[in-house]
Amino acid sequence: MTHQAIAGYMANDGVARKLASDLLFAARSMDSADWARLVVLSVGRAGRATCHVRWNGVRSLVGGASKAGQHVWQVGPKQAAADAWTAAHRTVAELPSRTQKAWQDFCALSRGKQADEIAQMLLSWMVFYAAAGGQDLEGGLPDMDLLVGIGEHRSLFSHSVLLGLEVELALRFGLAALDCLILRMPGDRHPVWDRIASLLERYGERALTGIWLGIGAHLLKDATLLSVAGTKPVVGLPWSMPMEAHQAFLAANGVAAAAVGASGQPAPIRQP
């Protein structure tokens, strides 16, 4: 091993030791009451953030569905379908101009904001593929129930929108707890902690969007609407249903998860 490699190893080892020391300092400064307050505070912050972001998105979706229903009631199904087709045709026709406008807006950003936007987009795609299970949409977050046993595969809690809520609450709890711990670290804590907190705040919402969209894509794939053969039913439901109903359940939850994820508002772009 060269002297340069040894020096690099020692430097990395020193950083790791400092990070561990900062975290240990924060943990040792807390008694059982402090830990209880941290858990309560973190759970509260996670719950409020999740309800705020998802409720606003769901309310917007419900409002759109309500307006669509009122339109159908007023003009009739036939005219409503014709109007929807016209609107879809207009949207497709406007797509080139909208794409060009988006590209112009991107080019107008500073180099730092362009890099930040690209980083957020790439993060969303990476998290999406990890949550969905890769290109074949096998594995990922929904299929982690296989760790419990094949009999629990496709349970209500792992193959519905409940999974998205569970994961989002857990991640928001972890981020909130980390914020509380950073505040208790020594004054000479390693500057990377502040950098980590800043990056998590900046990219957290995009990551959650990727998770929701990945779960939705996986459930839609599991629904296999074009074929009944080979579809495993959802387990743990309080009633029995035909296979077509299980497919509809998976498909509906897949669409709902994708819609909830798409409705989330990403964090504003900041100048790094």
Structure, described:
The chain is mainly α and 272 residues long. The chain has two domains: 3-71 and 111-263, no CATH class; 76-108. Helix content is 74%, strand content 0%. The chain contains seven helices and no strands. The chain has helices at residues 3-28, 32-75, 77-108, 111-132, 161-183, 192-223, 243-263. The chain is globular. The two termini are 37 Å apart. The model is unreliable at 5-10 and 266-272 (pLDDT under 50).
Structure in a nutshell:
It contains 7 helices and no strands. It is an all-alpha fold.
SSE layout and pairing:
Elements: H1 3-28, H2 32-75, H3 77-108, H4 111-132, H5 161-183, H6 192-223, H7 243-263
Number of helical regions: 7
| Unreliable spans | 5-10, 266-272
Element order, helices and strands? HHHHHHH
**pLDDT averaged over residues:** 77
User: Helix fraction?
Assistant: over 70%
- Secondary-structure class: mainly alpha
The main sheet comes to: none
Strand content range: under 5%
As for the number of domains, it is 2
Search tags:
single chain; 272 residues; mainly alpha; globular
